[in-house]
Design goal:
36 residues, alpha+beta, 1 helix, RNA binding
């Protein structure tokens, strides 16, 4: 779980990192739609 300071930061991370490889493993980033 990762928390971002802003919605824009989160969207940038998803756009750049979703479905990429990290240490030989495919990673997926998804937005948590739940509100706390």
């Amino acid at each position: 779980v990762v928390e971002f300071a802003t919605y824009s930061d989160m969207k940038n991370a998803i756009d750049k990192l979703d479905d990429t490889e990290l240490n030989g493993r495919r990673i997926r980033l998804i937005e948590d739609k739940r509100r706390s």
